[in-house]
Amino acid sequence: MLRLKTVFAGLAGLAAAMALPSAASAATVSVRDNPDNGGSVFASSLGRSVSIQHDGSNRTVQAGAFSLQFDEGAGWTDFVTFCLQLSEYLSLPKDHERVAGADYFASADDRQALGILYGNLLTGDHALKNANTAAAAQAVIWEIVEDGATSFDLSAGDFKLFTADVLSEAQSLWALIISGDYVASAFDVFHARGTQDLITSAVPIPGALPLLLSGIAGLGFASRKQRSRVIA
Question: For residues 209 and 52, what is the distance between their CA atoms, to the nearest angstrom?
Answer without folding.
Answer: 39
